[in-house]
Write a structure and sequence with these properties.
Elements: H1 9-23, E1 33-38, H2 44-52, E2 69-75, E3 80-83, H3 94-109, E4 120-126, E5 132-136, H4 152-164, E6 169-176, H5 185-193, E7 200-205, H6 217-220, E8 231-233, H7 239-243, H8 248-261, H9 274-314, H10 322-345, H11 359-376, H12 381-396, H13 406-418, H14 421-442, H15 450-484, H16 495-498, H17 502-510, E9 517-526, E10 535-542, E11 545-549, E12 557-562, E13 566-570, E14 580-586, E15 598-603, H18 606-618, E16 622-623, H19 627-635, H20 644-690, H21 692-699, H22 702-705, H23 710-735, H24 759-775
Parallel strand pairs: 1-5, 1-6, 2-4, 6-7, 7-8, 13-16
Antiparallel strand pairs: 2-5, 3-4, 9-10, 9-15, 10-11, 11-12, 13-14, 14-15
Length: about 775
């Protein structure tokens, strides 16, 4: 072998495999191993039993190996077996080992011949074995048997590929000698993942069952169907020998006698048989591990570094230490407060790049969603004029009024102000929902202590619900304050004298900044397939028009749509599409784009739709009103034609109401975010920093509050085991000299034969070439 340290290599890999398997993860390391592949009844299990010298694997017809068996052979003075899932139990009777394999297989796969990729780990200690680790995989099959799924062939193939695709895995391709080697399933699948043949070792079984007068000499001499690592022949016990409980030692002696006495194999007998195969695999696996050591070492070191920080906290960890619990409670509450504040105020660390959350979402509620809700409840023109008309007439009573009554203005204004209550309360509700979501997100770091997390969520959420009630009271108070005094001396109020000119002022106001860009972004125009199909364009919205371009360079303009007489319309999301849709249409029933009466615009999320609607509002494009209401208003029997004087009075009050309500809206839009921030958000931050700890102490016993979850305790143990396994592995690797001389991989050979040419063609070609050499 070269040096003593090399003998520790296979046990080292075994320890790593056990450590990672028990933790339930592979630590992202592809550990060197040997996978045994072959067709059903090729003799794979018999080869493994011959290694151990005991009958311990399940037998029967059809598919027997239904889960990967990681078999770790360890040279030892005593002889016994251990399963990773039965820690501490030593199996001395190997019949019990077989029963345990069958029971553990059925536990996961049931008894219907189904398969599972989750391995069974078995370690066998024996003086008769060399250190070796093999994985016995299910035999390849073509036809499902009994209750097996119809795709059993593909399931087994996928499972084999999971193991043998890895560069760190040697492939032991087992093929019976009494079948055509050119059609070997094992060699075919090995060729797929290892075309250069660097990792494939051939094993020929059932040499004693070949037809009389035939032999596999050319194959075993690596002449007929060559592999870089060559072939080794073995003779297993027959089914009659197995049924008759023939001793494996006697079988190995018979195998030795077979090779020494057979005229075709006598000259290569020293390189044939189970003992030589075991010795060769031990050497090849050891060399293979040595070759992969540098890469393995660097992976182990990077894993160790990533674990170091967390393990530092656990090294001197005592779960029941009261001082530790107190310290942990203080740190957790403090961290929760910091995280909550950072989410509200914004921060540079751990920024969510996929969705709006926390403060950003609340900001959107304040400045996009709330203004949109205000505009949505904007009064219906016909209904408003009708109300003004009735108000004027009712104030004048039996007399015909000569002057426009200001009482009518006040009555209408107050009615419109009362309508503000719903969107204001909805705004508060939206902020509360976001804060509760934020609290859940911030308590994720308390998962280690389920009771603490639960109590923290409960206390802070209850506090926010209390603040919710007080904030709504304050918001309603703001509305009541607006109702209490109609300030017609406000500097922005147009007054009676200017009311008549209001319409003209509106027309010029909209185009005060025609070139101002309000928004840019991607939108999809939904058009039927007959008219070209849906396409995505780059849209630019200004105060005067909506334009769309081929891309964001804005060089190739596709269309420009003026915003005059446009309105927004909500549309139902199509079951054929995942996108959210809204529409733009012309109130005068004109085509908006080409021959379309409305353009359907699609966004990826509802949030994007709401944001675009808010941008259209800023450009003066409002949502349509409920059509049924409009029709009811038009068809109402109370609607009467107005005389010219009443018409002028209605117009005057209409303009006054419009002016005053815009002042109130402006004031409410400004005060709502301030009220919510002061009474709810800032109060919640102060509560978390100054009072949450006291509430937690009063909520119950600190010991039970800081009781860590079973998952956390398990995670800590797994982390420490992983850490120590990695450290031990690095120490062992460090002790091994990488200058050890090992047998190099043989040079490449002609391997074009696999699954391409029938066997007789190859033999004929070889014979022709040989004859040609003799003649010349």
């Amino acid at each position: 072998m070269g040096n003593r340290g090399m003998e520790d290599l296979i046990p080292l890999i075994n320890k790593l495999q056990d450590a990672f398997s028990s933790i339930g993860q592979t630590c992202n390391l592809d550990l060197p191993q040997i996978a045994v592949v072959g067709g059903q009844s090729a003799g794979k299990s018999s080869v493994l039993e011959n290694f151990v010298g005991r009958d311990f694997l399940p037998r029967g017809s059809g598919i027997v190996t239904r889960r990967p068996l990681i078999l770790q052979l360890v040279n030892s003075k005593a002889e016994y077996a251990e399963f990773l899932h039965c820690k501490g139990r030593k199996f001395v009777d190997f019949d019990e080992v077989r029963q345990e394999i069958e029971a553990e297989t059925d536990r996961l796969t049931g008894s219907n011949k189904g398969i599972s990729p989750i391995p069974i780990n078995l370690r066998v200690y024996s003086p008769n074995v060399l250190n070796l680790t093999l994985i016995d995989l299910p035999g390849m099959t073509k036809v499902p048997v009994g209750d097996q799924p119809q795709d059993i062939e593909h399931q087994i193939r996928d499972m084999l590929l999971q193991f043998i695709t890895k560069e760190s895995c040697l492939i032991l391709a087992v093929t019976p000698a009494n079948t055509d080697l050119a059609n070997s399933d094992a060699l075919k699948i090995a060729k797929e993942v290892d075309p250069q043949g660097l990792r494939t070792i051939g094993v020929i079984t059932k040499l004693d069952l070949m037809d009389e007068g035939t032999d596999a000499r050319d194959i075993l001499e690596n002449k007929l169907l060559p592999l870089r690592r060559g072939y080794i022949g073995v003779v297993n016990r027959s089914q009659k020998d197995i049924d008759g409980k023939k001793d494996i030692r006697a079988a190995l002696a018979a195998e030795r006698k077979f090779f020494l006495s057979h005229p075709a194999y006598r000259h290569i007998a020293e390189r044939m048989g189970t003992p030589h195969l075991q010795k060769s695999l031990n050497q090849q696996l050891t060399n293979h591990i040595r070759d992969t050591l540098p890469g393995l070492r660097s992976k182990l070191q990077s894993q160790l570094l990533s674990l170091e920080k967390e393990v530092e906290e656990y090294k001197n960890f005592r779960p029941d230490d009261p001082a530790r619990k107190t310290k942990a409670l203080l740190q957790m509450v403090q961290q929760f407060g910091v995280d909550f504040e950072k989410c509200i105020e914004g921060s540079g660390d751990q920024v969510d790049t996929s969705n709006l959350s926390g403060g950003a979402k609340i900001n959107r509620i304040f400045h996009e969603r709330f203004p949109f809700e205000l505009v949505k409840m904007e009064f219906d023109e016909k209904e408003l004029r009708k109300e003004i008309s009735y108000a004027i007439k009712n104030i004048h009573g039996v007399r015909t009024g000569l002057f426009t009554p200001d009482l009518a203005f006040e009555a209408i204004v107050k009615k419109q102000i009362i309508k503000l209550k719903d969107p204001c309360l909805k705004c508060v509700d939206l902020v509360v929902v976001e804060l509760v979501t934020l609290i859940r997100k911030c308590t994720e770091k308390l998962t280690s202590y389920p009771r603490l997390r639960e109590e923290t969520e409960r206390i802070v959420t209850t506090y926010i619900r209390e603040r919710d009630s007080k904030t709504k009271d304050q918001v309603l108070l703001l509305i009541d304050i607006e109702l209490s005094y109609i300030n017609t001396n406000h500097e922005d109020f147009i007054g009676f004298a200017n009311a008549q000119q209001r319409t003209a002022a509106n027309a010029t106001k909209k185009r005060a900044m025609p070139n101002q860009v309000i928004r840019r972004g991607w939108l999809t125009i939904n058009i039927s397939i007959m008219k070209g199909g849906s396409k995505e364009y780059w849209f630019v919205l200004t105060a005067e028009s909506l334009s769309w371009y081929k891309d964001e360079e804005e060089k190739e303009k596709k269309y420009m749509l003026p915003l005059d007489n446009l309105k927004l319309r909500d549309l139902e999301k199509s079951f054929m599409s995942s996108k959210h849709v809204f529409a733009i249409f012309n109130t005068e029933q004109r085509n908006v784009y080409k021959d379309l009466r409305q353009i359907e615009l699609a966004c990826d999320t509802q949030e994007d739709v709401d944001s675009w609607k808010a941008s259209f509002l800023r450009a003066g494009v409002y949502p349509e009103k409920d059509q049924t209401e409009n029709e009811d208003a038009i068809n109402s029997s109370d609607t009467v034609s107005m005389d010219p004087q009443l018409e002028r009075q209605v117009e005057t009050i209409r303009n006054l109401v419009d002016s005053y309500i815009s002042i109130v809206n402006k004031s409410i839009r400004d005060l709502m975010p301030k009220t919510i921030m002061h009474l709810m958000i800032n109060n919640a931050k102060d509560f978390i920093h100054s009072e949450l700890l006291a509430y937690l102490y009063s909520a119950g016993d600190q010991g039970s509050l800081m009781e860590e979850s079973a998952e956390q305790a398990q995670r800590r143990d797994e982390m420490l085991r992983m850490y120590h396994a990695l450290k031990e592995a690095l120490v062992l690797i460090g002790d091994i000299s990488t200058t050890t001389i090992s047998t190099p991989v043989p040079p490449p050979v002609d391997d074009t034969w696999i699954a391409k040419e029938p066997r007789y063609n190859i033999i004929l070609d070889k014979f022709t070439q040989h004859l040609h050499k003799i003649l010349h």
